[in-house]
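General statements about sequence and structure are easier to judge against a single worked case. In the encoding step, the backbone of a single protein was reduced to a row of integers, each denoting a local shape. The record that follows shows the chain in one-letter code together with its fold in token form.
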Amino acid sequence: MGSEDLFHKKRERLAKDLRRKKQSRDKQPKILIVCEDSKSSAFYLEDLAEDLGLSGVKVKGRECGSAPISVVSYTIAEYAKSKETGDAYDRVYCVFDRDQHDGFDEAVLKVKNIVPKGKFFTITTTPCFEFWLLLHFGQTSASFVTKGKKSPCDCANEALKVDDKLPNYGKNKRQIYVDTKHKLVDAIKHAKQLSLLNQETGSENPQTNMHELIEYLQSIKR
């Protein structure tokens, strides 16, 4: 076999490898995640998706208001746009906190009633995203309530700094996912335990189903 034949065979193998890699990328579902928070939760989920190599995941947070119903309305509009272009999202997630929002239940119900079923999901946390971060460091079912001038979310923020869990935490900090990645398995385990406990007790404070979104993204990677 001549050197020219070897060259052509090598080039064909390279082309096949590139096509195989492209097909693998193309098989990834197209996911839209819209957060009420333009910083901490959006940063966290963006970095998680990047770490998992999920190029089909788009995270947005600056484009819509912080009210849950605004997040849902924006998400519905973005899905409609993607459908019009013939490249509809396979799944869309509305990520928002209970916090002190009056329209929380309305937003959850609106997503639940969306057709088609199985495409729209709500990822919620009570009182706020910081509680999800707190679960990286241990299990807790203690309710977060207003204390004086401190909101439930203020209290969750303070809890993150106790015992140097995340002493330098701030919503503007980009490294949230990196700083907590080594404890992600624990956070998922603790969230599942809390979910089971809440089913038994009927409690919704605290609460999170952030682990459902994360485990789904991990399953795409696998």
